[in-house]
Design goal:
With about 160 residues, the protein is mainly α. It has one domain. It has 5 helices and 4 strands; from the N terminus they run βααβαββαα. Strands 1-2 form a two-stranded antiparallel sheet. The protein has a two-stranded antiparallel sheet with strand order 3-4. The N and C termini lie far apart (about 45 Å).
Amino acid sequence: MDITPDLPVALQAELALRLAMSLGLGALIGLEREYHRQAAGFRTHSLVALGAALFTIVSAYGFEGADPTRIAAQIVSGIGFIGAGTILHYRGSVRGLTTAASLWAVAAVGMAAGAGLYVLAFLGAALVLVALWLMDRLADAARDAGMLPAAPDVRPEEHGEDVR
């Protein structure tokens, strides 16, 4: 397996565009999480998307004769560790699952951008935003109509307790 650093300038420019696109799409999703004051927000989602795109690009173009799907599989499993860090169990309530899922999804968006699947990356990001924004509104409306139970509002930091 040889390292192949000599890529044409035009290809390097396209790869740079892929990185920038992944960063921008991750940032949009992160802004939504930041708006909801989640621990993993703008910067975290941006970096996850960028890192996934960069790993995808390096695995596809950095090593001649290597199987790029091996790195992609490691991105999927590795993001689970980051996502797990956002989940908190406190007083019978679980918080952070949506943020963990959004990190997992934003890694996929970054991988799509890194692979040059531009339409898929944009569509994936748009659907993640639909799931986060629109589904939240629908759940609130269903709660207001009595179709769903009230959401627990358990935030340990508001009770003055140390959750570490």
